[in-house]
Amino acid sequence: MSDALRTAHEHCRSLQEALGHLCDEELERIDAWGRHLAAVLPRGGRLLAAGNGGSAAQAQHLTAELVGRYLSDRPAYSALALHAETSSVTAIANDYGYAEVYARQVTAHGRPGDVLLLMSTSGRSPNLLDAAIAARAAGLRIWAMTGPRPNPLAGLADDTLSIPAAGTATVQEVHLVALHLLCEAFDTVTAVPPAAVAERSVR
């Protein structure tokens, strides 16, 4: 067996174990998050999401599903991926330092009762930790998706979904599954009934 093939097998085994943890230990948490968002967003609340690198891409994936749709037709809901505000990110980084790029946006956009979802494989990114502190001061609910505990971000969040995998790629891959499950939980509550969709298309 080549080294590359051996590495691929190890990656798959790690992913299977991490997915097993997600399915055995985290589904109730994800369902609760989905139901909470379903109570907050239709009433004018907002989801703010942030991460770095691949986690930033996943944060934006989630907000796109909420503003657009996941599977079922439903209204658009307010969700912002903070890294995608490129002019704000670069201006804040230039004027205040990179650690403030999310915290200042949380202060600007967050309102009491909104939700801030922070995604980090390490749970140690200073800009996410500062964002959590800003969210706490502004009265937001803070959720974290991280790699293994303990980590500082989990300590600052109101609730944390942690994946006990050593590899960054594995953590991110399972986070993506968790995001899809979160969308499914949200849609279960908020989806427009099929009859209403048919009536809308006739008008």
Rough shape?
globular
Instruction: Quote the distance from N terminus to C terminus.
Output: 62 Å
Quaternary state, please? single chain
Number of strands: 5
Gyration radius (Cα, Å) is 18 Å
Q: Biggest β-sheet: count, sense, barrel?
A: 5 strands, parallel
How many distinct helices?
8
Spell the H/E element sequence.
HEHEHHEHEHEHH
Describe what this molecule looks like in 3D:
- This protein has 203 residues and is of the alpha/beta class.
- Helix content is 59%, strand content 12%.
- It has helices at residues 3-40, 54-67, 86-96, 103-109, 126-138, 152-156, 168-190, 194-202; strands at residues 47-51, 79-81, 115-120, 141-146, 159-162.
- Strands 2-1-3-4-5 form a five-stranded parallel beta sheet, with helices on both faces.
- The protein starts with a helix and ends with a helix.
Write a brief structural summary.
The protein is an alpha/beta fold and 203 residues long. It is 59% helix and 12% strand. The model has no long low-confidence stretch (mean pLDDT 94).
